[in-house]
Amino acid sequence: MKTQLLTGHDIAAAAAVLRDGGLLGIPTETVYGLGADGLNAQAVRRIFEAKGRPQDNPLILHIPEAGWLERYCRNIPPEAYMLAERFWPGPLTMILQRKVNVPNIVTCGLDTVGVRCPNHPVTLEIIRAARVPVAAPSGNLSGRPSPTCAAHMLEDMEGRIEAIVDGGPCGVGVESTIIDLTASVPRLLRPGGLPLEALREVLGEVAVDKAVLAPLAAGEKPRAPGMKYRHYAPKAPVTVVTGESRRTARYIRRHLGEHTGVICFDEFAGDFPGCVVEAIGSAGDKAEQARRVFDALRAFDETDVDAIYAQCPGDGGLGLAVANRLKKAAGFQVVDTGEAAT
Ligand code: AMP
Ligand code: MG
């Protein structure tokens, strides 16, 4: 199969790919997604095949407005509309009870479904033109870092899908925040492009699932199926170093080998001579770190590094999402140098 590269002017062609049961790379503000008609079980099955995605890791339904929620969800609590009003279109996925018209393959048999309205004008137009909800996970091969530009998605998906729409680089750079609204207390299942603090402003109490911060114990059942898989991982093993940034830089300097890769804040980019260094933004600029973290993880696979160390932001704001992606890439191999980062 030849994968076609489309642009934001090819709305009709992109919508036709979806309507014909094809697979379409879609730009969003978070990361590129691998989309199919979310009501067409056969088309959705092909997403799992193209990614090599485990059959028990469900997809998110992408809709163009909150008005579509009733089509696919039932018992929708008022909080869902409050959140949609405030944060949609945007990097927030809500877990709600699903209606029976949502194919089992989308939810992997769960009676809940993840729904989001992405903040990208091209993709919103494509969904409206196709007149179907778009089921999509991130557009990487399973286990690889998520793609934040069309070229990275092409790297993973060339020859496997019908087309990719190039909508430019992603403005947020990490996936959506996932909030489960079916529990008695809303529960954060995945930190992402919308900070936890923003959710708490609207919802009050929000529980944080423990899989966000630590690995699951053997045999423990995850709340969100995606939580149990190793993710975002470059080929070389990653060690995340937490703590105040001068201390983490010092720790990493003391542990450098012959072929070490380092993910660091811009201020420390000159501190690791002889290493492959990926700077991801200044220590205080978490939005920039979110935009660049996946590209940094991806870049090491072009090099001969055999170990990677990463400085890690503190948990405030977008730091929770950046730290979570780094720790998942590291399989939660974390060294704490003490004295928390901000
Ligand atoms: P991705 O954005 O590639 O990580 O894929 C979608 C994410 O949404 C995965 O982490 C899924 O586990 C999560 N997800 C989708 N639907 C549900 C659901 N019904 N309940 C919990 N998590 C979900
Ligand atoms: Mg993914």
Radius of gyration: 20 Å
- CATH domain fold name of the largest domain: DHBP synthase
Percent strand equals: 15-25%
How much is the average pLDDT?
Answer: 95
Tell me the helix content: 25-40%
When the domains are counted, the total is: 2
Main beta sheet, described? Answer: 12 strands, mixed
Topology of helices and strands:
Layout: E1 4-7, H1 11-19, E2 24-26, E3 33-37, H2 41-51, E4 60-62, H3 69-72, E5 73-74, H4 78-87, E6 92-98, H5 104-107, E7 112-116, H6 121-130, E8 134-136, H7 150-157, E9 163-166, E10 177-180, E11 187-190, H8 196-203, E12 207-208, E13 238-242, H9 245-254, E14 260-264, E15 276-279, H10 286-299, E16 307-311, H11 319-329, E17 334-336
Parallel strand pairs: 1-9, 2-9, 4-7, 6-10, 11-12, 13-16, 13-17, 14-15, 14-16
Antiparallel strand pairs: 2-3, 3-8, 4-8, 5-6, 6-7, 10-11
Helix pairs in contact: 1-6, 10-11
The structure holds adenosine monophosphate and magnesium ion.
Protein architecture, described:
Helix content is 29%, strand content 20%. It has 342 residues and is of the alpha/beta class. The chain has 2 domains: 209 residues, DHBP synthase (Alpha-Beta Complex), CATH 3.90.870.10; 99 residues, Threonylcarbamoyl-AMP synthase, C-terminal domain (Rossmann fold). The strands form 2 sheets. Strands 1, 2, 3, 4, 5, 6, 7, 8, 9, 10, 11 and 12 form a 12-stranded mixed beta sheet that branches. A hairpin with a 6-residue loop joins strand 2 and strand 3.
Quick tags:
binds adenosine monophosphate; 11 helices; globular; DHBP synthase; 342 residues; twelve-stranded mixed β-sheet; Rossmann fold
